[in-house]
From TrEMBL:
Residues 47-62 have a biased composition (Low complexity). InterPro entries: Regulatory_FmdB_Zinc_ribbon. Residues 47-70 are annotated as: Disordered. Pfam families: Zn_ribbon_8 (PF09723). Residues 1-42 form the Putative regulatory protein FmdB zinc ribbon domain. This is Putative regulatory protein, FmdB family.
Length: 70
């Protein structure tokens, strides 16, 4: 199951939930109990290193870092 970063349209509270896609649409704000929730799009950090046999090269990718959630 995926994790979703959500934002309450009424009070501005930011929160995360770990649920199915269908359950995401039924979430309510834990702060004010409003059903007016929007999905927040946040960056995902991905990094890795790899090398091919017979080669001294390695590659790495890093997504932009965010200042934190919340």
């Amino acid at each position: 199951m995926p994790s979703y970063d959500l934002l309450c349209s009424d009070c501005g509270h930011k929160f995360s939930v770990f649920c199915s896609i269908s359950a995401k649409d039924q979430q309510r704000c834990p702060s004010c109990d409003s059903p007016n929730i929007k999905t927040r799009f946040t960056a995902v950090n991905v990094s890795g290193t790899g090398s091919k046999s017979g080669s001294n090269s390695s590659s790495s990718f890093s997504a932009p870092r965010t200042t934190g959630f919340g």
